[in-house]
Design goal:
Length: about 425
């Protein structure tokens, strides 16, 4: 991995609240538990020897029960909470060594934060709030308002620019917080439970929208949550914390199939593997008959010849980001317009985001034709037959009935078991 790819490098960060710092560090080094330390010294270990790196564009989630140290850790990263020991590098710069003035500069220019209590300025308008981060950076008014308007539109609040936060619902206020972060376009975005306190439907919707925006903008994001669903759907990698310590850092798939210990296993118990099966895992990649993968005409012709009536558009992780419906596909296939194809792919991605595979079963059942699988660039990368989809889900239900996480392994680990050759 290139050093340039690392935005954040956290090395052995510990935060101790109260008590004797040196004595507590010593006890930590000796392996004393949080409870023992508290009993012996009165100190509370907030974060214990945490180390991890985050790559540019990565979505890194910190998860754990209440009191496990998530908020303390994320606040330590920009010294809103002062770490007791350890080092933190943002873009190669050691944050722990900075003067107050230097630290302010880092916070203004490199990082943005979205916390649960939106942190909006009540007397400022939505537009001013969204532009606030840029204002503190000294960006001229016209330029910052332009960026803020674009961000407001992206979070779906166009038309609300001149209102004050109190006129907005909680979900809308949270969107203003997101707009502010997006307008700022930080190197590192820190979010602490940003979707809590919203009702479940809004929460889900906002989460999905945010995931799409995050990926599109290529933001490097650290999200704190105690919500497993949120962690698994959003995270590229997830760090699980207990008693201030990071117990495991893993991808969502690894976390479900291979939890480090009983604590992590109990966390992910509720997750059904089928929700995390991806289109990429069950698709048939044997589409080599498309000679020029970049040739959208060839892709359309191929879909047509295979009688694929609809096509999924998938992202880099293999999850479904949208569907090109049969009407569109046949219209485009017959008129051969490359532009129309590209537009259809784009529209499919904006219309539906990260649909869990099981949600697509009714659609697949309705059609006796295979589904095409297309990447963001409009290239055909595979196809899914109805049988392959059903088999994958049936296997998953069987595995889910087994009580150990290992029972689910074949489904999430090795998509090849579900691939049905159709050619
Ligand atoms: N200012 C403080 N003074 C003393 N102890 C603190 C302080 N802030 C946090 N702690 C302690 O540090 C530990 C970690 O707390 P933290 O708030 O980081 O956990 P969390 O995982 O974010 O929890 P939650 O999900 O409830 O917000 C807890 O034991 C807490 O009591």
């Amino acid at each position: 991995m290139q050093h340039d790819d690392i935005v954040l490098d956290v090395r052995r960060v510990t935060k101790i609240f109260g008590g004797d710092r040196d004595r507590t560090l010593q006890l930590i080094a000796q392996g004393a538990t949080k409870a023992e330390i508290q009993e012996q010294t009165g100190a509370v270990v907030g974060v214990r020897d945490a180390s991890f790196t985050v790559r540019r564009g990565e979505f890194f989630v910190i998860m754990g029960l209440s009191g496990s140290g998530k908020s303390t850790l994320v606040r330590c990263l920009i010294r809103l909470v002062e770490p007791s020991s350890g080092q933190i590098f943002i873009d190669g710069q050691d944050i722990t060594q900075l003067s107050d003035a230097e630290l302010r500069e880092v916070r203004r220019h490199k990082t943005a934060m979205v916390f649960q209590h939106y942190g909006l300025l009540p007397h400022k308008t939505v537009l001013e709030n969204a532009a606030y981060g840029l204002k503190t950076r000294g960006v001229p008014k016209e330029e910052r308002e332009q960026a803020a308007r674009a961000a407001i539109e992206r979070v779906g609040l166009k038309g609300w620019e001149d209102y004050r936060p109190r006129a907005l619902s909680g979900g809308m206020q949270q969107r203003v917080g997101l707009a502010r972060a997006l307008a700022h376009n930080p190197d590192l975005l820190l979010m602490d439970e940003p979707f809590s306190g919203l009702d479940p439907l809004i929460r889900k919707q906002l989460r999905r929208e945010f995931a799409a925006m995050q990926e599109e903008a290529g933001l490097t994001t650290i999200l704190v949550t105690h919500d497993l669903d949120e962690a698994l759907t959003l995270g590229d990698r997830i760090a699980v914390m207990r008693d201030g310590q990071i117990i495991q850092i893993a991808t969502p798939d690894e976390l479900i199939t291979n939890p480090a210990d009983a604590y992590v296993a109990s966390f992910v118990e509720g997750a059904s593997a089928s929700r995390f099966l991806t289109a990429a895992q069950i698709m048939d990649r044997d589409v080599t008959t498309v000679s020029a993968a970049d040739d959208t005409d060839a892709v359309r012709r191929h879909l047509h010849s295979r009688s694929a009536r609809s096509a999924f558009v998938i992202n880099g992780n293999g999850t479904v980001r949208g569907l090109i419906p049969s009407e569109d596909l046949s219209r485009i296939s017959s008129n051969g317009d490359r532009r129309a194809w590209e537009t259809a792919v784009r529209q499919a991605v904006t219309a539906e985001q990260d649909t869990p595979l099981p949600d697509l079963v009714p659609l697949a059942l309705k059609s006796r034709y295979p589904l095409g699988v297309v990447d963001h660039a409009g290239r055909l990368v595979g196809q899914i037959t109805k049988n392959a989809l059903l088999k994958a889900l049936a296997d998953d239900i069987e595995a889910d009935e087994g009580s150990t996480p290992d029972a689910r392994q074949p489904n999430t680990r090795d998509g090849a078991t579900h691939v049905e050759r159709v050619s």
